[in-house]
UniProtKB/TrEMBL annotation:
Lineage, broadest ranks: Bacteria, Pseudomonadati, Bacteroidota, Bacteroidia, Bacteroidales
Protein name as annotated: Mg chelatase-like protein
Domain Magnesium chelatase ChlI-like catalytic: 1-116
PANTHER family: COMPETENCE PROTEIN COMM, MAGNESIUM-CHELATASE SUBUNIT CHLI
An example Gene Ontology molecular-function term: ATP binding
TM ranges: none
Signal peptide annotation: none
Residues annotated as domain Mg chelatase-related protein C-terminal: 125-221
Amino acid sequence: MVGGGANPQPGEISLAHNGLLFLDELPEFNRGVLEVLRQPLEDRHISISRAKYSLDYPASFMLVASMNPCPCGYYNHPTRTCVCNPGQVQRYLNRISGPLLDRIDIQIEIVPVPFEKMAEENRAENSASIRGRVIEARKIQAQRFAAHPGIYCNAQMEAGLLHQYARPDEQGLDLLRAAMTRLNLSARAYDRILKVARTIADLDHSEHIRSTHLAEAISYRNLDREGWAG
């Protein structure tokens, strides 16, 4: 994952630079390996230090991960009963640390789709139109950060740019304050919510972040919800 070796080679983290790194069954990875992801997710590069050398590899990638909610896979299932006890569920989820979860902008719980929904003739928005909306939002972000070298999208914003481009109105601040208190969110989660809300506003062609954009961004942090793990 990290890279290195006697003859230094980049690992999967660096090979995914400017691309996507997909980790299936996230809790099954060694916890030490997962913790290595924290630095590159934050700094967009990874430093490798060995006895004879020290290297710095680029690592600006999009992390996508999937996992079951518990060892048997049926926790919170609408029709099937989970056979795990609460301790097993908690230990399974604890394989992923809070600091790593904080660095994942969007956390969505996917529920099974019933046959009736799959058999519906009404089709959802097609991929071509979604792609068009994403391209438009990216153009908005490119124009926004044209005067900021090295910044190309909302995900790369730091505190100063967040204050400049992603500050919500008073109603939005009240909503965010309530969510921070109720979910006991960290300062890092606060920043991530603002970045996602800014992107939602861009997709909505809105110059300002409205409370609806913030509410949607907050709803995408499923693993921060109290009681998610029983």
